[in-house]
Amino acid sequence: MIPAEHPCFSAQAHFRYGRIHLPVAPRCNIRCGYCDRRYDCANESRPGVTSEVISPEAALDRVERALRLDSRLRVVGVAGPGEPLANPATLETLRLIHSRFPGLLLCLSTNGLVLSDALPELLDCGVSTLTVTVNTRSVVCAGHVYRTVGGSADAGAMAAFLSAQQEGVAKAAEAGLTVKINTVVIPGVNTGEIEEIACWAARAGAAVMNLMPLIPQAGFRDNEPPSQALLDALRARARVHIPQFTHCRQCRADAVGVPGEMNCIGCL
């Protein structure tokens, strides 16, 4: 079931309730071809960007201040700037928040590489919603989308990664977590398998899917982002298999506020 007060899962909640992303996770265990975390600008809103990386204790303080500023805050998430599950500080942060504010929804974004192994601890920390980025189910396509997985660029590493995503999503859904699948739409690279990913996500137990347009940068800096017409067509096909979330703002790793209303950066 999609949480009624999660603004990144529910279209209605998107305009009514707030979320805060805590940038406690700088390290990553894969290299996405479209990711560039070298720059920060207050006017730049995209995944992987943060003004600073903070400690778990500072994260708790940030949540306390955010709640004082806006009582509509419902969700605390860790979305980077790297891979949350590659950073021990993520679980420490989640435990602190859950202990101090047990009524808040805890959310995590992950590439899924080590999700299956981390799942017991996530459940113990009180995580109830999960976003997994799945850009392909093809080993060949994965070789184009990802530079390395676990330090390796060979086909075996890509195949193991896709298998780990499959296992992690299925186990998370079976354990009762609400799972959203994020897919970056890269024209000419993975557009031909979006419906297949939607089918796979539904079979694995995911509750909702979010198709996000490519932001041209890093290895894909010369690629064109998908047109709105293409996104609409892909969403229509995917919607046959799994509900679509269409309000994503592709937020920063330190975003805070009601996403449908504002994206307040650096005020905490």
Automatic annotation (TrEMBL):
Entry cofactors: [4Fe-4S] cluster
GO molecular function: 4 iron, 4 sulfur cluster binding; lyase activity; metal ion binding
Pathway in which the depicted protein is active: Cofactor biosynthesis; Fe-Mo cofactor biosynthesis
Keyword Cell cycle part of the UniProt annotation: no
Keyword Cytoplasm in annotation: no
Superkingdom as given in the UniProt entry: Bacteria
Radical SAM core domain span: 14-252
UniProt keyword list: 4Fe-4S, Iron, Iron-sulfur, Lyase, Metal-binding, Nitrogen fixation, S-adenosyl-L-methionine
Record-stated family: Belongs to the radical SAM superfamily. NifB family.
Stated name of the protein: FeMo cofactor biosynthesis protein NifB
Species: Flavonifractor plautii (Fusobacterium plautii)
